[in-house]
Amino acid sequence: MGRVSVPAVTQSRELNGRESDGESDGDETFQRSGIWRTLGYRRLGWSQGSATVEWRASEDYCFPTAGGPVVQGGLVTALLDAAMGGACWTTLGADEVFLTADLRVEFLRSTRPGVLRATGEVVRRTRRVVFCAAQLVDADGTLLATSRCTQIVLPGQGPAGRGIPSEVDSGPPQDARG
Question: Where is this region: Disordered (predicted)?
Answer without folding.
Answer: 1-29, 156-178
